[in-house]
Amino acid sequence: MRYAAISISICIALAGADLAAEEPVILKVTGLIDDAPAHFTMADLRALPATTLETSTVVTDGVHSFTGVLLRDLLVQLDATGDVITATALNDYVVDIPRADVEQYDVIVGYSMNGAELDRADKGPLWIVYPREGHEALQDIRYDYRWVWQLSELEVR
Ligand SMILES: Nc1nc2c(c(=O)[nH]1)N[C@H]1C(S)=C(S)[C@@H](COP(=O)(O)O)O[C@H]1N2
Ligand SMILES: [Mo]
Q1: Whole-prediction pTM value?
Q2: Angle CA(147)–CA(151)–CA(155) in degrees, nearest 5?
Q3: Domain residue spans in the chain?
């Protein structure tokens, strides 16, 4: 009886591990938030209200449609209190994003481009996208640095 109970719990544990393997965490948020660290899978991000921006980028031709979560809303949802967000990418690229950027502009944590999920081998799975189309001030190298592709972590400071 006891062994049966143990093997059942092992089965449950393995089933849990399997589910976790199917849905990897793609974004970690740390620092000055309510309950750090916060972990998001793609499904978690897709469950939040989505925003779509039509914008040019510095690395592609023409205007593209990007969909993702407003960084402003994500920070509010997490009760973030800091003024700077340090963004880190899978390739260890790190840059500071002033929170004022996301208050002033609709900056998104983008997960799809032209309706297709961002490719991990390219700029995905997450890309910070600024609405540079229609905001001339954003067409500047200072902002280009903040378009973090392959985003993996945000630290609120
Ligand atoms: N993950 C990641 N994001 C990044 C960078 C990088 O090296 N890694 N470079 C930044 C810089 S310096 C610029 S100008 C823009 C465009 O960089 P790219 O032309 O190398 O794509 O992306 C920014 N985002
Ligand atoms: Mo750059």
Answers
A1: 0.87
A2: 95
A3: 24-156
